[in-house]
Design brief:
3-stranded mixed beta sheet
């Protein structure tokens, strides 16, 4: 599947808007970023939470750089056949990475069906 960066970024924003308010209202000092691929160049990773989970933020506060949730465009496009499938996969990636912000690890996500 092909989609330029601007269209993919719009799709990510649309999917963020579709998430439940309870999930996104608690996000503090987090930015969402779209990148083409992970640093290692593979197509295996759809997203990444780069930051300190809420459960580990004891002394976290003013002046801290924002955590980042990165959504990788090319792995998503390589894995999806059409826009509906792409939207579902981006949605799952966003839920997965936001869960890491809240301190939910991959094992718990797998048990919940989000990994």
């Amino acid at each position: 599947m092909e989609m330029d960066t601007a269209a993919f970024e719009k799709l990510v924003v649309d999917e963020l808007d579709r998430l439940p308010d309870e999930m996104v209202e608690g996000l503090d000092n987090v930015v969402f970023v779209v990148e083409d691929r992970p640093e290692d160049g593979t197509l295996d990773l759809f997203g990444l939470y780069d930051g300190l989970a809420l459960t580990e933020r004891g002394g976290y506060g003013m002046g801290e750089l924002p955590d980042r949730i990165i959504v990788y465009r090319e792995p998503h496009l390589a894995a999806c056949e059409d826009e509906d499938e792409l939207r579902d996969e981006v949605h799952t990636t966003l839920v997965h990475e936001i869960a890491h912000f809240y301190g939910i690890d991959d094992e718990q996500l797998h048990e919940l069906g989000w990994a």
